[in-house]
Amino acid sequence: MNFRHMQLVLKVAQMQSFTKAANALKVPQPSLSQSIFALEKELGVALFNRSTNPISLTHAGEIFLSKAMLINDLCDDLTTQIKELNTMQKGKIRIGFSQNGYSMLPDILPKFCKRFDSADIKIVQLFSTLKIRQMLLDDEIDIGMLILPIDTTYLSYDIIKTNMTYLMLPISHPFSVKFKNKILPKINISDLKNEKFILPKGTQRSRAIFDEIFSKAGFKPKILCETETFDVANSIVASGVGACCSISDMIKDDKKDKVKLFDINEPSLAKTLVIAYKKDKKLSKLASGFIKMAKKYNK
């Protein structure tokens, strides 16, 4: 039994006639009949009731047909995927991402570039998600990694993952010592009113969120440093100084044992990573492939 036999059975079952099937396949009718007869002999069962008009499938034929249809669909799907892969290898894509976006998807860009090494892939790193948004609207990039909340008017997006932002303190801090055996212990931000904080710069969108949190807690924070990146904030706290807010995925391995994370119960600090593109813009196979890969690795 081979794939050609399955195709013959599928066509005869569809046309309900050996003659019509042979004409459709442009093969001699005796040759088609002989091929199916040889298959039935190999299987040890008849697949067709030849005494009916039009011919019909036997019970064994119905089972054979159902499985043959599945195999045929798989083969069609395989052919389509291989053709799409070839198209993607010759494609072009421009991707924009921020440090936050990259930190939340550390392995995707390298894997994507290796898989489609023949494609024309251009990657642009930017510090501002607002700049990424504008580049999408101006058609300067095809897809961009954005962190919600952000104005997505005129954009469509696929949600990739959501990470919570937690308060980070040095491992030597009294609270870290007090809760050393607890994972993500809960504390109130007001308990840290005497701490020095490493916060986002005032030009960054997230700064307004932090200002609101401190306002609700009833105090104005002492600011040790203002920075644009998690890396700087994480490094300062890991050195034993100050407090900041960070995402566990963004803490480098050499710093994880030098800090401790705390839950301050602030849903507004959740960061949702999306891959965005201009609304009503048809995505290329390469862009769709990147989004599919990002979702796969973050299930």
What's this model, at a glance?
43% of the residues lie in helices and 21% in strands.
Write the layout of secondary structure elements.
Layout lengths: L2 H13 L2 H8 L3 H15 L4 E2 L6 E2 L1 H31 L2 E6 L1 H6 L3 H8 L4 E6 L3 H9 L5 E6 L6 E9 L2 E5 L3 H5 L17 E5 L4 H13 L4 E6 L2 H9 L5 E3 L12 E4 L8 E8 L6 H12 L3
Parallel strand pairs: 3-4, 3-5, 8-9
Antiparallel strand pairs: 1-2, 5-12, 6-12, 7-10, 7-11
Question: How would you describe this structure to a colleague?
Answer:
The protein is 43% helix and 21% strand. The longest helix is centred in the N-terminal third of the chain and has 31 residues, at 59-89. The mean pLDDT is 87. The radius of gyration is 30 Å and the shape is elongated. The protein has a five-stranded mixed β-sheet, with helices on both faces. A three-stranded antiparallel β-sheet has the order 10-7-11, covered by helices on one side. Strands 1-2 form a two-stranded antiparallel ribbon. The protein is built from eleven helices and twelve strands.
Rounded to an integer in angstroms, the radius of gyration calculated over CA atoms is 30 Å
- Determine the N-to-C terminus distance: 40 Å
Class based on secondary structure composition and strand pairing? alpha/beta
Strand content: 15-25%
Task: Label the overall shape.
Answer: elongated
Number of helical stretches of at least 4 residues: 11
